[in-house]
Amino acid sequence: MAQRFGSLKVYFPNVVFKIIPDARLGKNQAAFRVPLNVNKLDIKDYLTHIYNVTVTDVRTTVFPGKLSTNRYTGQKERGSRIKKAIVTTKEEFEYPKEADVDKHFGGLEIKHETMRRANKLKGWRIRPSIEMMALRTKILESRRETQEASEKKS
């Protein structure tokens, strides 16, 4: 029998859970920063259906916003509130590895662009520095490596 696509409705989550590393939690616990409008049942449902994690307990707290003073008026203002959820799972929880910003998110290009803008502010003529030239070579090398890796795969 041939597979049919498009007959089922697919719903994508429209909430963002941010993992908060906390050394005080147990091995089967994880802390998340969640939107204020998400409740415990939504958190459990989200983690079980999206990540196939067996959730046994969910605890949430809402932290008040931090007080700060407005520079212009001198009045005290309160920032936005934060909701934190501590989730206990059946299995041991492992934090994901940190992504390499320079390799995957264009970190070298961002550094190069900030240095270029700083040099442009110094004078009308842009003079590339030794650091800038080194960054350019790193960028070109990383691009070559990614191109070679993609060519080898195909």
Automatic annotation (TrEMBL):
Secretion signal span: none
Pfam families, per the entry: Ribosomal_L23
Any one Gene Ontology BP term: mitochondrial translation
Species: Coemansia asiatica
Entries under InterPro entries matching the protein: Nucleotide-bd_a/b_plait_sf (IPR012677), Ribosomal_uL23-like (IPR013025), Ribosomal_uL23/eL15/eS24_sf (IPR012678)
Name this polypeptide is given: Large ribosomal subunit protein uL23m
Alphabetized UniProt keyword annotations: Ribonucleoprotein, Ribosomal protein, Transferase
GO (cellular component) term, any one: mitochondrial large ribosomal subunit
Family to which the UniProt record says this protein belongs: Belongs to the universal ribosomal protein uL23 family.
GO MF annotation terms: structural constituent of ribosome; transferase activity
